[in-house]
Amino acid sequence: MLLGVLVVVLAVLVAVLDLPGTVLTVGVVVAVVLVVAGALAASRLTTVLSFDHTGYRVRLLRGAGVRAARWREVEDAVAMTIAGHDCVVLRLKDGRTTTIPVDVLETSPQALLEELSGRLDRGHGYRRLS
After folding, report:
1. What b-and-e string marks burial along 18-53, b requiring 16 or more CB atoms within 10 Å of the CB?
2. Residue 82 CB-half CA count within 13 A
3. Strands (E), 1-130
4. Are 19 and 56 within one domain?
């Protein structure tokens, strides 16, 4: 919004000071480039799914269900196809779920399930047999 205000101010200055029209054109192009660059930077820096030793947190996914839970609350994790999208569903012991569409993450369903399985095992105090 701030860039829009600056473009309007620039347009008024061009009109009042009788500046060439290219000044306004350059200002608009710079504003558009800054908006696109900012949007790309924000989308890359945004973490959708995060884990730690106690649990998980989901951000920015509408309809994901439960946004955060401790590993001890999670019963299991399963891969499903929902509405044509590969998803991983975390089923909680109380019947609630968290649905994570894998295409919004930079991983495969299998890799995500392996990571979740290890976290769940540690969270429940299980150790894998060699």
Report:
1. eeeeeebeebeeebeeeeeeeeeeeeeeeeebeeee
2. 15
3. 49-51, 55-58, 68-70, 74-82, 85-92, 97-101
4. no
Structure tokens at 119: 């976290």
Domain count, the chain: 2
pTM for the whole thing?
A: 0.63
93, 77 in Cβ contact below 8 A?
no
Q: What is the CATH number of the domain that holds 111?
A: 2.30.29.30
Q: Annotate 53-87 with three-state secondary structure.
A: CCEEEECCCCCCECCEEEHHHEEEEEEEEECCEEE
Containing domain of residue 36, as a range?
2-45
Same domain for 82 and 22?
Answer: no
Q: What is the DSSP letter of 104?
A: G
66-110 pLDDT per residue, tens: 999 999 999 999 989 999 988 899 999 999 999 999 888 888 878
Residue with tokens 């608009």, as numbered in its chain: 28
What value, to the nearest 5°, has the Cα angle with vertex 97 and ends 93 and 99? 145
How far, in Å, CA of 38 to CA of 107, rounded? 24
